Amino acid sequence: MSSEVKGGRRAQLEHTGLRHGWTTGACATAATTAAYTALLTGEYPDPVTITLPKGQTPSFALAAEELGDGYAMAAVVKDAGDDPDVTHGALIRATVRRLPAGAGVVFRAGPGVGTITRAGLPLPVGEPAVNPVPRRMMRDHVAEVAARHGGTGDVEITVSVDHGEEIARSTWNPRLGILGGLSILGTTGIVVPYSCSAWIDSIRRGVDVARAAGRTHVAGCTGSTSEKTVVAEYGLPEDALLDMGDFAGAVLKYIRRHPVDRLTICGGFAKLSKLAAGHLDLHSARSQVDKGFLAELARQGGADEALRAEVAEANTGLAALQSCMADGVPLGDLVARTARDEALAVLRGAPVTVDVICVDRAGTVVGRSSVA
């Protein structure tokens, strides 16, 4: 298929002309891989190559090395591509130390990496803010290096970011209860650059390609996790998938003028709660999760006063959802249904049916609407 008729997430990125970058999780994985290799062999691989969750194999140059008694440190400079990321240029370090056989892989927060202090995040209180997918990537690469060079794979990995505590003041980490520095993030290892005008133009191109291919059902997804969920649910082909990102309004307004029979919107619960509250731009810098709004939805779902207060004071949207799930209040379904109704209002009677699916960070469906 020629580039002129490609659709889907990858084609949208190509169409923007923007250069992608690497997440802090990918950088930490590269640094860990290099450090553990040096610990076992005495030599640093430079550049060091890793495998990302979708199979890409980028290579990273090392910016710093230190090999000592029972430990090795390697560092990588984060390149965020053309994305205006506050961590662009940050030095991501991983220090790897041997542990006794059977200890497994233990993560520590070094200088500039935060620690979880409040519930509602995907890690327990007290854990270093190294998110689940980067942890899995580092574990997998430690296991590969151990198998190749005769190690046990039992190590302590301390991740640090030079000036990370200062950089974190420009993020939402302090408000979320992540104290002491940044989070090590990423679900794909790739930073997708967002120029608003370029990305909205790529969404429009995606709709045009889907219509030209005769697709009657398309899906607007906030990211790769929700995209996987939609594919699993409906088996949609790549050219029916729109990488909506934060631009829900762009998808809805363009489909209003260029209808398809059915639109599925799939995304993280917190992001879609913003759509339910009437926001069409879901970026964290331009809209926030309204816990008071969620508390009102919970009331409609039968929440008592105590639960409504708990939702209103929750640290995150996920924490609010978890509280409601524990009490049998279908907050996920209520958000999905309300988001669907908001989407229909933007469509203004265009001949398009809509359904909404809310997922958690693992891609588990936590709420859905009917098709209307």
Q: What does the secondary structure layout of this molecule look like, with pairings?
A:
Layout: H1 9-16, E1 21-22, H2 24-41, E2 48-49, E3 59-60, E4 64-68, E5 71-77, E6 91-98, E7 105-109, E8 112-113, E9 115-116, H3 132-149, E10 155-161, H4 164-168, H5 173-176, E11 178-179, E12 181-182, E13 190-191, H6 196-212, E14 217-221, H7 224-234, E15 241-243, H8 248-257, E16 262-268, H9 269-276, H10 291-300, H11 305-312, H12 317-326, H13 331-347, E17 353-359, E18 365-368
Parallel strand pairs: 7-10, 8-12, 14-15, 14-16, 16-17
Antiparallel strand pairs: 1-13, 2-3, 4-5, 5-6, 6-10, 9-11, 17-18
Helix pairs in contact: 1-6, 2-3, 6-8, 9-13, 10-11, 11-12
